[in-house]
Amino acid sequence: MVKIDTRAPFALVGTVLKYLSVPLLFPLALGLYYGEDAWVFAVTVGIALVVGFSLERLDTEPSLRGREAFLMVAVSWLAVSVFGAVPYMLAGSGTVAQPVNALFESMSGFTTTGATVMEDISFETHSRAVMMWRQTTQWLGGMGIIVLGVAILSRLSVGGAQLMEAETPGQGIEKLAPSIVQTARILWGLYFGATAFLIAILYGMHVVGIADGMTLYNSVAHALTTMPTGGFSPEARSIEEFSPAVQWTLAAFMLVAGTSFALIWTVVDEKNPRPLVHNGEFRLYVGIVGAASALGAFLLYLGAGTDAAVGNAEGAVRESVFQFISIVTTTGYASADFNFWGASAQLLLFVVMFVGGMVGSTGGGVKVLRWTVISKVLKRELYTVSHPDAVIPLRLSGKVLDEDAVRGALAFFVVYFLVFLLGAVVIMEDSLRAGLSLSNFEALSASAALIGNIGPAFGVVGPMGGYGDFTNTTKTLMFVMMWMGRLEILPVLVVFTRGFWGE
């Protein structure tokens, strides 16, 4: 086996870091406007440019093969998370000023996990520039850093298909145009347009008086973390702070963000909603959200909800719909503290942590398509028990599924749940060693929330809490779990195998 050439991947990582300086200009401008922490972002821009240009010199005309693409993607996500932590440390405010916490918050942002170690989410502790950078990291990570690079950087367009496949493993890249560069531009164009549309709606609602507190700053901040299914909010109590109108609006946009952007483009391009009806994955996605929300609303209304939901039909429905959409799509917003839900409603919410959005969406988790494949495999196996000579191809939306794709889905399931269980064990044991009171259910939910890029879980890491009380050892493990979860585990694990590096 030919040994891997590390120069090309690291040179392209340098290109990514160099252009990371561009989105850093947004919080820099805010810092200048508000007179807060502008120097923090000016210094970070300088560091990103120096390191980026230095790494680019490793290879002036990089070309990538399969393994180099995996390495470049894995290292790029790690590198941007490290550089994304620099503003938190330089600003020196609150718990995120500590290096491990800063790395955790940055990785949580770029992977759109939404887990936080901030103990005081307020403008008294953190500047508006730093808080907006926190939101921006999620927006950058939502559609994919590499997909963005392929769309706008000629240096990444060569080998772009391999890079995009490595960044979205197990999903495949559905070409929406003759070239992969055009496809990347279509995806990011849809993403940008949806974000801008949501900003306009939220701020418009504020102007007409039905969205108190949804200022222009908050409109931008929440749009930047809704479309990537991220869940960070500059408000300490998340979406609970806002009116029912805002909650219903964000619920609708979260549902859209959890839908395949390729499917959305097909609907827009054909000006016909029929593809939604004919798409089996979309029907199952909406069906799961609808069924979970209906059952959840019933439980909340009967007494398993907060005071705003018990005996209040609209409150129960809104609280349930919002929270189940938020968790299924792995956004992690909260319109109520579900730590106060009854055990039955909490268990249902825990179960849907393993659903995820559609493939090709900004949602994380297992993904609805994989559940579809697994259900079809199970149905086929049950049939072949009594008909051992039968040859039954698996079909999805009328198309025969490739058996390699089926095996890939099964392998992902095994690895995903192994990492989830091992993560829960380590979180539990290290917490007990450190004297942190944590139940088995809380440890399991924390592990599920991290590997699924969901964010909030139950107990101390509930929607109004955070991960700041864990030890640095546990937070380092969580950092790795978020990284693995965003790249769907295998592209990260493969880098640590001997065969990957050749002989």
Describe the fold and architecture.
- With 503 residues, the chain is mostly helical.
- It folds into 2 domains: 1-173, no CATH class; 178-414, no CATH class.
- Helix content is 64%, strand content 1%.
- It contains 23 helices and 2 strands.
- The protein has helices at 7-34, 38-56, 66-84, 86-91, 99-110, 128-143, 145-152, 154-157, 160-167, 180-207, 216-226, 244-257, 261-270, 274-278, 280-304, 313-328, 343-352, 368-386, 403-433, 440-451, 472-486, 490-493, 498-501, and strands spanning 395-396, 399-400.
- Strands 1-2 form a two-stranded antiparallel sheet.
- It is globular.
Compact overview of the structure:
With 503 residues, this protein is an all-alpha fold. The protein has helices at residues 7-34, 38-56, 66-84, 86-91, 99-110, 128-143, 145-152, 154-157, 160-167, 180-207, 216-226, 244-257, 261-270, 274-278, 280-304, 313-328, 343-352, 368-386, 403-433, 440-451, 472-486, 490-493, 498-501, and strands spanning 395-396, 399-400. It folds into two domains: 1-173, no CATH class; 178-414, no CATH class.
